[in-house]
Write a structure and sequence with these properties.
0% strand, 149 residues
Length: 149
């Protein structure tokens, strides 16, 4: 049992289990060899059947029936795989949106934290500006008093 088969949930539906098994089985080298063997056996009977219409009809009918049935089995397996991929992609998108929302919340918190930490610094700098302005006024007043006197 491969890792891919282990991740597929158990199916209650007999048809789905059969479709999964068949889609896996027909993709194996053994299935190709079996098909090749059937064609080889059919071809060996060609001279015995004088390459008759019936002889040709046997392979044509057999391949048509097998192809017809395989289309439905493979389509079923393919549809379920597509649905599973769609669910996985939807989960990824949902998780991505959740992470994006959390990221935005974190940025807002960090912005507020920066404002809370920067505000006291700005207030302190503003107070220093007022002190510098007061010192400037005293110096200008002292200079004016000396030049007036």
């Amino acid at each position: 049992m491969t890792a891919e088969q282990q991740t597929v949930p158990a199916r209650e539906n007999v048809f789905e289990r059969f479709a999964d098994w068949m889609s896996y089985a027909i993709g194996r080298p053994g299935a190709f060899l079996l098909a090749l063997l059937i064609v080889a056996i059919w071809a060996t009977f060609g001279p015995l059947a004088s390459f008759s219409n019936t002889w040709q009809l046997i392979i044509n009918t057999g391949t048509t029936i097998v192809t017809f049935l395989m289309v439905f089995l493979l389509s079923n397996a393919s549809n379920r795989i597509t649905e599973s991929q769609d669910r996985i992609l939807a989960n990824i998108f949902s998780e991505e949106e959740r992470v994006k929302t959390e990221e935005q919340l974190i940025r807002k918190v960090l912005d507020r934290m920066d404002v809370r930490h920067i505000q006291p610094i700005l207030k302190h700098l503003d107070e220093q500006d007022h002190q510098i302005a007061a010192v400037e006024e005293r110096i200008l007043a002292a200079i004016q008093a000396r030049s007036a006197g």
